[in-house]
User: Fold this.
Amino acid sequence: MLTINNLSANVGETQILRDLSLTVKAGEVHAIMGPNGAGKSTLGNVLTGREGFEVTGGTVDFDGKDLLALDTEERAREGIFLAFQYPVEIPGVSNMEFLKAALDAKRAHQGLEEMSSVEFMKLARETCRQVRMDQSFLKRGVNEGFSGGEKKRNEILQMMLLQPRLCILDETDSGLDIDALQSVSDGVNTMRTPERGFIVVTHYQRLLDYIEPDFVHVLAQGRIVKSGTKELARELEAHGYGWLDSEVA
Amino acid sequence: MTDFQQQALQLAQQQTAPDWLQDLRAAGAERWSATPWPTRRTEHWKYTPLAPLQKTDFGGWGQAADAADIEWIDAEAPRLVFVNGRFAPALSSAELPAGVVRFADAGADQQAVIQQHLGQIVDSERHLFAALSNAWVEDGVLVHVPQGAQLASTVHIVHISTPEASATTASQRVLIVLEAQASASVVEHFASTEASQNGFVNSLTEVQVAADAEFRHSRVNLEQEDLIHVGGVHVNLGRSARMKGFTLAQGSRLKRIDYQVNHRGEGAELVLNGVYLPRNRQLVDYHTNIEHCVPHGTTSETFRGIIGDSARAVFNGRIHIHPDAQKTLAELSNKNLLTSGKAEVDTKPELEIYADDVRCAHGATVSRLDATALYYLQSRGISQAEAEVMLSFGFINELLREAPEASVQSYLRRRLGWLLGRPEPLARHLEGATS
Assistant:
């Protein structure tokens, strides 16, 4: 589904990703771990085409399409979803309007009719229940005044509504209490299907107790330096990232 | 006198006003002639050159037209419609709520009310175009609500400009008098049927809100591109009177709107919210001046502007708290969103405080569309154009939501894409936007 080949990217003058390669097949969950500054968040930003993140080399194939040739919104409509580490507050635009605009855009892309407001409300409420988010959050401004946990639940809510092909979770576990972590993970786990792939970016092993990965990769200095199964995550938890310095060098 | 000043006096001579308005007209003409024409050095016109007015040769008054293709804010509500300054009976409601009458149809009692208040609420020594409005007063609308009464329905006063062969002028005058404990809601709707028309509209609304009366007012300026509009809303608030005001202006060649509200009685409450949306090469200038003359008054004033393309906006908000006005609560906020690198705003919030026991705050900001928020929306599949409209909408939604009439809110929401210079369908899901 996703084939990243020798991807290099800069932020400003600084090279962050160096010849990164990764293949994600449908149905797989890949965890990407690594120390701060390794380029974990950059990967999500590059895959979604964020301005300021400049690809300097390599290719990304997504379902047979050249992903890097698409705009941010086109990538989203094709089925790429990034759950933000720091979801953005947009006062004055209700969560409901935002969610409907996103779903309408995706459906239009698929050649489907816009969902009626009534139908959409029903779907949004049902999804709210699934991520254990109070329905009042639908009427509030997008992420406006939400707690850290509420913001992350809102990300998962969007993910469930949009039903993406590839979900990228960027440090979704950061700043979450156990209860929120549980609902977020439940949301992700119900979405695990043979047609859908996941890239779970995290600093800590804790999240992987809830979302069990098929593969674990260690990202350091902009490239994947080690890959393995979930056992690798346990090792990292036990030994930290200090050993990487000697290994990479 | 400038050419335009002289031309304006000649235009006044072409009018046929009733005898009982002649004194006011004469006084207006005198004041208009005696007032020096504003220049760049005139504080109140510093950022708004009147060149478009001077450069135009106004051949005469606007002519009546029976048809004007606009959508009403509320088709069911009673309305008085003027086209090019002329009353349009075919477009107006046959039945109006008691107390609403054109000057031309005013009975003796109503004439007395008009003579008592018209030109008395506005200070034409400080407002040049109020002097012009006095000199030009011919017809107008009186809304008079007696003590303890409620205006039976919200009244819409609609002023439409249509294209004419040459540049013409129109004068729009409204007087609203709420006696003690009365209440009323009035919507003033200015529109033009096409972007290209060289007209000049001078409009003036005076409002007397007596003790414990409640006034709700919406003034929507949707005249397009080439129209010149200079307007003013001048209000006296009596003891414990309440006013909730909302105004929105789309830009045009020159659009200048003054709000002057005087807290004359103790304990009055004013909420005044405004939105301005100039784009292309348009200009919108809002000058507001709130006078707290007596104690215990409250003012909450919020204006927000979205300025696009090479447009310019001017906001000058002054709150003046006199020495006697102890225990005043006043807040003034002005926020501006520039959606293009060439857009410009001159904002000046002013608090002048001469009393020592008051709570006041004021502030102004100028910002651009938030790149992170745009990216967030786009990362969900929303197009850049639509994301920009959504962020702009979010910026002013809080104020739209506070508009005193639900019909005004939904009318403006439906037009938001158009107002922001985007094709309408983009903002389709914002139409039914919930609060």
